[in-house]
Each structure stands twice: as structure tokens, then as C-alpha cells.
Amino acid sequence: GVGIYPTPTIGMVGLLEDVEERQDAWFKGEGDAVVLLGETLGHLGGAEALFALHGVEGGTPPPLDLARERSLVELLQGLAKSGLVRSLHDCSDGGLLVAVAECCLAPRGCTGAHLKLESKGLSDLALLFGEDASRAVASCAPENVKPLLEVCARSGVPAAVIGRVSGGRVRADVDGRIAADVPLADLRKAWESGLDSIVGEMGGRNG
């Protein structure tokens, strides 16, 4: 009588005809620009943050504009071939700050990021953890910022530089104040031990 969370699950397989055109999620170089592709509106319905912080499972999921989603996907395909970007990663579960944190956790070695964001009327929770559709995080060399933004504009996808690849921390400033600042070592530990902690909690309850 109880649904299995999360439901439904969709599996998908794609074909990459030229492996040299692949783009992984990891940030590559100190000083690279971090660019947000898409628009942040702060939708929290069904968001992981609501459940993690407040135990709330509910709300209306963010709306999906199929035309906007297609424009983003076509842009990402073009960028992967263009040589303008060094990494590409979707924003999905957890929102913008979680996506950026994932970009910092390369399998071998890692580097942090320093974001400088404007709230534009959104709360920190909505800005950093809202799960708006049709967004991705890119990184590029400083000299490629202008041509990257020009490509995005021609594609009709909003884009803005939101920070730099930097140091051993993930930090987000909102309107000039520190909204989040976490050592990368702590994020790495949480990332790698998440399943262990869940299994341990279940074992403790069953014991």
C-alpha cells in the first residue's frame, strides 16, 4: 500500500559515434569560468532539499517547456563538438549548488569552485537548491567566455558566468554574502560514504 520512492524510473541508452566529442562533468582547470545555461526560477516542489532539510515530500514539480528543453539539448550537443567548453553537467536532483559540487568531485583529483550569485528575489534555498528544468553547468577557459555566451544567445538559451573554478572549497556568495562554504574534503567524504551511512542507519533500526 506504499509507493516505492522515487517512482517512476526511466532507463535510457544513447550512442556516441565519436568518443573524442565526449564531455564529462568534472571541472578541469583553476581559473576556468563556471557558466550556468538556462534560467533559475527557484522551483522547490518535490525538491531533494525540502525532504533533506524539512522531511517534506510534495509540491508541484517544476514545469517543463519542451521547446526550451530541446534548445538546451541541441546547444549541449553543439558545445560538445565546438571545443569551447571543458565540462558539461546537467542540473537535476538537488539543484544548482549540488550540480556544481558534483562537478568538483572528479574521480582522480578534485578542485573547488567559488560562485557569485544574485538572489533576484529568491531565497537562498530556492536559488541554490531549486530544481528548475532545462539547466546545465558548463566550464570554459576565460578566453572562451565571450564566444560561448554568443553561441548560447544564438541558440536562445539564457547563459551567465556565475563563478570560477577555484581552490579546495565549494563556496557560494549571494548578493555579496557567504551563503554556503564547504571544504571539498568534507564533500568528498559525504559523497563516497553516503550509501554506507544509509545502510548503517537501516541496520541500526532493524537491530
Features:
207 residues; alpha+beta
Protein architecture, described:
The chain is α+β, with helices and mostly antiparallel strands. Helix content is 35%, strand content 19%. The protein is built from six helices and seven strands. A seven-stranded mixed β-sheet has the order 2-4-1-5-3-6-7, sandwiched between helices. Strand 6 and strand 7 form a beta hairpin. Helix 2 runs antiparallel to helix 5. The mean pLDDT is 89.
Annotate the secondary structure layout.
Layout: E1 33-37, H1 48-54, H2 66-82, E2 87-90, H3 96-104, E3 113-117, H4 124-129, E4 136-140, H5 145-155, E5 159-165, E6 169-174, E7 177-183, H6 184-206
Parallel strand pairs: 3-6
Antiparallel strand pairs: 1-4, 1-5, 2-4, 3-5, 6-7
Helix pairs in contact: 2-5
Mean pLDDT: 89
Oligomer: single chain
Question: What's the tally of helices?
Answer: 6
Uncertain stretches of 5 or more adjacent residues = none
Structural class: alpha+beta
Radius of gyration (Å): 18 Å
Percent of residues in helices: 25-40%
Morphology call: globular
Q: Strand portion, in percent?
A: 15-25%
Major β-sheet profile: 7 strands, mixed
Count the E strands.
Answer: 7
Kindly report how far apart the N and C termini lie. 24 Å
Order of helices and strands: EHHEHEHEHEEEH
Strands side by side in the biggest sheet: 2-4-1-5-3-6-7
